[in-house]
C-alpha cells in the first residue's frame, strides 16, 4: 500500500516533469510557423531618406518605417544590422506614377547584400515583380536566410553585420524614367540567438574610411602582438558554451534520466515486496 | 544620447581612437539653364523660368544651415546669334559659400531667358567652382533643352570630370523634357553616378531640388575613397591598408593589389564596379585572392543582366590555422603574408578603347580571424532526451537487480 502510494508519487512526478518540460519547450524553442508580415514597432520615427550607393546607404533598424519620394530609375540604398540567429524580412511597396504618364510595364527588383557586398539569396518573397502598365502600386518582398554565428571564410553563408537593401527598376521603357514614385519599406526580424556554434570575431561591418597605400608591410613582433588566446583570469570560464537552448535540453535530459533511473530501480523491487 | 546611439544601427566602423573631426559643410551647385527655350509656358500654364525661379527661392529659404550653395547659369546674357560667342555664355551668379539669402534671391529674380545652351561648358565651370575636397560634391543640373553647343558633348564632359577622381556627382532634372533631353541627362547622370528626374509640376521641381540638397548633406559624413592605381601583375602592385579605395578599369582589363595579412588575421575585400556607360545586357565581375605564387585562395563573383548601377562581390580569406608550432623558432619579427587581389570584369560594350575605364570601389579590411568552432559540448533534441531517459532507466533497473542480488546474498550469509 505504502509502495503503491510511492509509485503514484513517481508517476505524478513524471507527469509533472513532462508537463513542465512541454511548457519550457513551447516558450524556448523557435516556432517553426511561417513568418508574419513585418509590423512597425511603436514609437519609432519614420525615416524619409535613402542613400544612393553602398557608402551612403541610410541606416534603418528593424520595425522602423521608411517612406521616401524618389524618381523611377533611382537606385535606393538602405542598410541594417543583423545578429546571429536573426531571420530578416524586407517588405517594400512602391506607389507608381500615374498610369497616364507611363508607357509600359516595369520590372522592379529588391537586392540584399551582406557587409561584403555579396548578393544574398531570398528564401521567400516577390523579389522581382513586374508591374503592369496600368498598376498603381507594386509590392516587393524578400525573406533572408537565417544569419549564422560562424561560417567558413570560403562560404557565402549570411553572417552577423551590416546588410544592404537596394531597390531598383531593372527593366522599363526609357520614357518612363524620372517620374515621381513613393517608396515604403519596413524590416521585420525574428529568431533566437546562439542557435549554432562558433563565433565571428568581428562582424561583417565594412570600413568607411578612405584607405591608404603603404610602402611596405610592417613586420610584427610575435611577442609584442596580443596572443589570439590570452590566458588571463577573465578567460577561465571560456570553455563553457554560451547560454543557449542546448543547456535546457541537456539539463532536462539529465533530470529525465534521473527520474527514469529511480523508476527503473523501483520496478525491480515491486514484485518482491508485493 | 548614449542610449540612442547604442540603439541605432552602425553601418560603418566607429573608430574610438579617431579624433573628432569638424564636419565639412555640404557643397552644392545648382546649374540652371536660362536659354531661350525656358520662355515656353507649358508647366501648369506658367513659363519654365518662372517655375524654376520660384523653386530656387523656396530652396534658398529652406536651405539647411551650414550648406554651401552656389548657383551658376548658362545662356543668360548673350542675346546675339553668333554660336561661338553664345556657347561661352555661362556665369556663376552666387558663389559657393554659406548662402546670403537676400542676395541669392535678387540674383535669381533678375534672370531672363536669353541664349544658347552650353551644358558641357557649364558643367566644367561648376566643377571648378566647387573645388576639391574630402567629401562628395554635387552639381544639380536643371535644364529644359538639349545642349546646342556640342562639342564638347556634355556627356563626355561629365565622364571626363568623373574620371578626374574628385568624386563629383551630377544630379539632373529635366523640365518637361523631350526624348533627346532625357537621353542626354540620363547619360550625364549615369556617367557620374548621379540621378535623373523629370519635373512636370512646380511642386515636383521644388521637392526634388530640396531632396538633392538634403542628400548632399548626408554624404558629408562619408569621406571620398582614396584614389589608387592598381598594378598589371601582383609583383609591384600597390600595398593596401584597410579602408575604401577607388580605381578604374577598362573592359577586360585586370587590376592587381596586395594586402598584408598576418597568420591570425582574416582578409575581407569587396568590390563594386559602376556601370557608367551603356554596356551589353549580360555582364559579370570577378574578385580573386591569390598567393604570391599565383595559387588561387578564394574568389568572389557576381553576374547580372539588365539595368543596374553597380555590380558587386566580396570575399573573406584567412590562413587555415594560426601556425602555433613555428612561433618559438622565430625570434625576430614575422613578416605578414602578402595576399594578391585581382579584379576583372566581363563587361562588353562599344565604348572607345581610349575612354577612361569603368570606376570601381574597393573595400579592404583586415580583422582577427575566426577559428572553426569545436564540437558542441551540450546536446539538444528529442532524440537526446530519449537516449538519456533509456540510459537512466536501464541504469536504474541494473542498479535495482544488483541491489536485490546483493541483499539476497547478504541475507543468506
UniProtKB/TrEMBL annotation, chain A:
<keyword id="KW-0472">Membrane</keyword>
<keyword id="KW-0732">Signal</keyword>
<protein>
    <recommendedName>
        <fullName>Peptidase</fullName>
    </recommendedName>
</protein>
<keyword id="KW-0812">Transmembrane</keyword>
<feature type="transmembrane region" description="Helical">
    <location>
        <begin position="247"/>
        <end position="269"/>
    </location>
</feature>
<feature type="compositionally biased region" description="Low complexity">
    <location>
        <begin position="219"/>
        <end position="235"/>
    </location>
</feature>
<feature type="region of interest" description="Disordered">
    <location>
        <begin position="212"/>
        <end position="236"/>
    </location>
</feature>
<feature type="signal peptide">
    <location>
        <begin position="1"/>
        <end position="36"/>
    </location>
</feature>
<keyword id="KW-1133">Transmembrane helix</keyword>
From TrEMBL, chain B:
<dbReference type="Pfam" id="PF13519">
    <property type="entry name" value="VWA_2"/>
</dbReference>
<keyword id="KW-0812">Transmembrane</keyword>
<keyword id="KW-1133">Transmembrane helix</keyword>
<dbReference type="InterPro" id="IPR002035">
    <property type="entry name" value="VWF_A"/>
</dbReference>
<dbReference type="InterPro" id="IPR051266">
    <property type="entry name" value="CLCR"/>
</dbReference>
<feature type="domain" description="VWFA">
    <location>
        <begin position="27"/>
        <end position="216"/>
    </location>
</feature>
<protein>
    <recommendedName>
        <fullName>VWFA domain-containing protein</fullName>
    </recommendedName>
</protein>
<dbReference type="InterPro" id="IPR036465">
    <property type="entry name" value="vWFA_dom_sf"/>
</dbReference>
<keyword id="KW-0472">Membrane</keyword>
<feature type="region of interest" description="Disordered">
    <location>
        <begin position="1"/>
        <end position="20"/>
    </location>
</feature>
<feature type="transmembrane region" description="Helical">
    <location>
        <begin position="382"/>
        <end position="407"/>
    </location>
</feature>
Amino acid at each position: 500500500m505504502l509502495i503503491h502510494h510511492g509509485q503514484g508519487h513517481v508517476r505524478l512526478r513524471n507527469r509533472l516533469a513532462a508537463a513542465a518540460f512541454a511548457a519550457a519547450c513551447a516558450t524556448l524553442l523557435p516556432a517553426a510557423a511561417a513568418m508574419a508580415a513585418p509590423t512597425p514597432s511603436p514609437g519609432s520615427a519614420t525615416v524619409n531618406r535613402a542613400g544612393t550607393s553602398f557608402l551612403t546607404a541610410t541606416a534603418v533598424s528593424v520595425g522602423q518605417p521608411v517612406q521616401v519620394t524618389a524618381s523611377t530609375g533611382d537606385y535606393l540604398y538602405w542598410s541594417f544590422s543583423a545578429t546571429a540567429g536573426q531571420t530578416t524580412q524586407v517588405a517594400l511597396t512602391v506607389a507608381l506614377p500615374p498610369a497616364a504618364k507611363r508607357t509600359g510595364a516595369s520590372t522592379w527588383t529588391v537586392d540584399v547584400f551582406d557587409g561584403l557586398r555579396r548578393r544574398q539569396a531570398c528564401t521567400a518573397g516577390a523579389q522581382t515583380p513586374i508591374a503592369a502598365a496600368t498598376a498603381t502600386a507594386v509590392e516587393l518582398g524578400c525573406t533572408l536566410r537565417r544569419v549564422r554565428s560562424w561560417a567558413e571564410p570560403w562560404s557565402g553563408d549570411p553572417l552577423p553585420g551590416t546588410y544592404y537593401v537596394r531597390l531598383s527598376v531593372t527593366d522599363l521603357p526609357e520614357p518612363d524614367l524620372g517620374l515621381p514614385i513613393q517608396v515604403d519599406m519596413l524590416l521585420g526580424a525574428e529568431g533566437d540567438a546562439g542557435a549554432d556554434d562558433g563565433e565571428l570575431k568581428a562582424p561583417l561591418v565594412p570600413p568607411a574610411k578612405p584607405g591608404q597605400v603603404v610602402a611596405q608591410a610592417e613586420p610584427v613582433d610575435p611577442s609584442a602582438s596580443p596572443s589570439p588566446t590570452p590566458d588571463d583570469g577573465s578567460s577561465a570560464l571560456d570553455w563553457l558554451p554560451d547560454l543557449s537552448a542546448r543547456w535546457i535540453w541537456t539539463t532536462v535530459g539529465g533530470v529525465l534520466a534521473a527520474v527514469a533511473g529511480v523508476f527503473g530501480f523501483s520496478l525491480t523491487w515491486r514484485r518482491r515486496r508485493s | 544620447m548614449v542610449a540612442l546611439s547604442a540603439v541605432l544601427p552602425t553601418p560603418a566602423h566607429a573608430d574610438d581612437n579617431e579624433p573628432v573631426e569638424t564636419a565639412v559643410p555640404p557643397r552644392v551647385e545648382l546649374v540652371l539653364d536660362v536659354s531661350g527655350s525656358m520662355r515656353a509656358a507649358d508647366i501648369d500654364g506658367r513659363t519654365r523660368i518662372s517655375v524654376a525661379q520660384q523653386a530656387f527661392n523656396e530652396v534658398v529659404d529652406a536651405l539647411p544651415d551650414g550648406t554651401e550653395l552656389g548657383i551658376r547659369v548658362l545662356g543668360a546674357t548673350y542675346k546675339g546669334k553668333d554660336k561661338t560667342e553664345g556657347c561661352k555664355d555661362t556665369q556663376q551668379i552666387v558663389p559657393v559659400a554659406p548662402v546670403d539669402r537676400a542676395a541669392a534671391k535678387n540674383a535669381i529674380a533678375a534672370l531672363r531667358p536669353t541664349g544658347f545652351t552650353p551644358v558641357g561648358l557649364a558643367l566644367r565651370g561648376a566643377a571648378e567652382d566647387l573645388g576639391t575636397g574630402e567629401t562628395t560634391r554635387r552639381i544639380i543640373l536643371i535644364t529644359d533643352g538639349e545642349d546646342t553647343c556640342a562639342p564638347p558633348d556634355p556627356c563626355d564632359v561629365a565622364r571626363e570630370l568623373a574620371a578626374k577622381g574628385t568624386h563629383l556627382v551630377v544630379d539632373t532634372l529635366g523640365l518637361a523634357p523631350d526624348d533627346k533631353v532625357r537621353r542626354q541627362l540620363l547619360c550625364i547622370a549615369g556617367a557620374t553616378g548621379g540621378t535623373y528626374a523629370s519635373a512636370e509640376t512646380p511642386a515636383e521641381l521644388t521637392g526634388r531640388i530640396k531632396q538633392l540638397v538634403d542628400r548632399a548633406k548626408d554624404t558629408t559624413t562619408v569621406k571620398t575613397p582614396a584614389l589608387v592605381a592598381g598594378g598589371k601583375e601582383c609583383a609591384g602592385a600597390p600595398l593596401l591598408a584597410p579602408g575604401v579605395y577607388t580605381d578604374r578599369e577598362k573592359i577586360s582589363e585586370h587590376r592587381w593589389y596586395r594586402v598584408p595579412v598576418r597568420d591570425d588575421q582574416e582578409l575581407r575585400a569587396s568590390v563594386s564596379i559602376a556601370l557608367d556607360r551603356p554596356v551589353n545586357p549580360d555582364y559579370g565581375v570577378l574578385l580573386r585572392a591569390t598567393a604570391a605564387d599565383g595559387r588561387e585562395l578564394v574568389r568572389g563573383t557576381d553576374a547580372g543582366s539588365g539595368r543596374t548601377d553597380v555590380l558587386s562581390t566580396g570575399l573573406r580569406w584567412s590562413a587555415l590555422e594560426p601556425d602555433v608550432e613555428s612561433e618559438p623558432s622565430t625570434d625576430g619579427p614575422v613578416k605578414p603574408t602578402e595576399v594578391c587581389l585581382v579584379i576583372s570584369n566581363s563587361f562588353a560594350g562599344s565604348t572607345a578603347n581610349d575612354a577612361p575605364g569603368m570606376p570601381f570601389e574597393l573595400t579592404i579590411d583586415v580583422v582577427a580571424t575566426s577559428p572553426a568552432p569545436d564540437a558542441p559540448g551540450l546536446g539538444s533534441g528529442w532524440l537526446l532526451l530519449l537516449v538519456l531517459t533509456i540510459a537512466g532507466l536501464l541504469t536504474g533497473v541494473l542498479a535495482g537487480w544488483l541491489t536485490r542480488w546483493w541483499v539476497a546474498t547478504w541475507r543468506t550469509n
